[in-house]
Specification:
The protein is an alpha/beta fold. Helices cover about 40% and strands about 15% of the residues. It has a single domain (about 5-265), classed as Metal-dependent hydrolases (TIM Barrel, Alpha-Beta Barrel), CATH 3.20.20. It contains 11 helices and 8 strands. α4 packs parallel to α5 (about 115-125). It binds zinc ion.
């Protein structure tokens, strides 16, 4: 079946990213990702941005769309008055399918007024706002800013903006499920639920209780039409992670979770 990976990072040449990719059996190049995608019937991927929103940024091949990435510290560094116009220039491009916010990595709740202009732009252009939620990379980030419950405020205050909760708030699963169930303008994506490369047979035995909770909360509400597959490459091995999610999702929802929901929510037109 055709699939969409709705959460990858393309870092460009960088010793840290090179090592991260190698640690999961990959190479940190766009060509390598495309090759992996082809092998796994992943026809398109959404890049979650990690660069400043300059006009030159975010040039990828046709297999990719992207969410222009922002966090509060970056907005302050670039100038809160200047960044909305930069982001708008991206939103005008067909390849830009949304905005990605990184609360937690900077100390601002997503209800902070700093982010307000981006919700207005998202509504105006009809493109979603994806938000990092749950566990962070490294101890310097602050979890209270990226707890899934914080998304309830903005979803309620901006009913015409489509939000995407990245990583299903993991491991704050019950809170994520409550926010998703309550807000019709909230979708959730299930990337990055494990890190690195795992022997799945061992993982599903060793982490049995966690897997049961994950299955329970994914199936808790009537929101299979709002759950989106993504990997979080290069943090995970793509094939290994696809196998992991395939074990979690009941087969009758594969078409929605692996393709239809991302295609509709990010308006990819595939
Ligand atoms: Zn990510």
């Amino acid at each position: 079946m055709k699939r969409i990976d709705a959460h990858v990072h393309l870092f460009g040449p960088d010793p840290w990213a090179d090592e991260l990719a190698r640690s999961v059996g990959h190479e940190n190049t766009e060509e390598h990702v495309v090759q992996q995608m082809e092998q796994l019937d992943i026809v398109h991927a959404v890049v979650m941005g990690n660069q400043d929103p300059t006009p030159q940024a975010y040039r990828f091949g046709p297999q990719f769309s992207y969410c222009v990435g922002l966090d509060g510290a970056q907005i302050q560094r670039l100038g809160p008055g200047k960044v909305p116009a930069m982001v708008e220039e991206h939103l005008r491009r067909p390849a830009c399918c949304g905005i990605k916010l990184y609360p937690g990595y900077a100390p601002h709740y997503i209800s902070d007024p700093l982010y307000e202009p981006y919700y207005e732009l998202a509504e105006q252009y009809g493109k979603p706002v994806a938000v990092h939620t749950g566990q962070t990379q490294g101890p310097n980030a602050k979890l209270k800013y990226c707890h899934p419950l914080t998304l309830d405020d903005v979803a309620a205050d901006h009913p015409y903006v489509q939000f995407v909760m990245c990583h299903f708030g993991n491991p704050f699963l019950a809170d994520a499920a409550a926010v998703l169930e309550k807000n019709p303008n909230m979708a959730a994506e299930i990337s990055g639920l494990l890190c690195g490369y795992e022997n799945l047979d061992d993982y599903f035995i060793g982490k049995r209780e966690y897997i049961n909770m994950l299955r329970g909360w994914l199936g808790y509400g009537d929101y299979w039409d709002r759950l989106i597959f993504g990997t979080d490459w290069p943090g995970v091995n793509m094939e290994n992670y696809l196998g992991f999610i395939q074990r979690l999702i009941p087969e009758q929802y594969d078409q929605q979770v692996f393709f239809d929901n991302a295609n509709r929510i990010y308006r990819l037109g595939l």
